[in-house]
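R.M. (postdoc): so does anyone remember the format we settled on? I'll just put the structure tokens first.
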């Protein structure tokens, strides 16, 4: 099974936008690690938007 290209682009863009990491570094991450960063960024954004 291959990972959907659109989803991969979304994850890369999300991490790059928030962490300013280069594309190569983000693509070098293992999939579970990249998903973990996506989840952590989302939690941070949620806390910020809720004023915590």
């Amino acid at each position: 099974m291959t990972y959907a290209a659109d989803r991969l682009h979304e994850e890369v863009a999300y991490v790059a936008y928030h962490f300013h990491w280069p594309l190569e570094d983000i693509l070098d991450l293992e999939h579970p690690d990249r998903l973990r960063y996506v989840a952590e960024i989302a939690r941070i954004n949620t806390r910020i938007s809720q004023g915590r």
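R.M.: ...and that's the designed sequence above, right after the tokens. Also worth knowing: The chain has a mean pLDDT of 93. The helical segments are 5-19, 23-28, 31-49.
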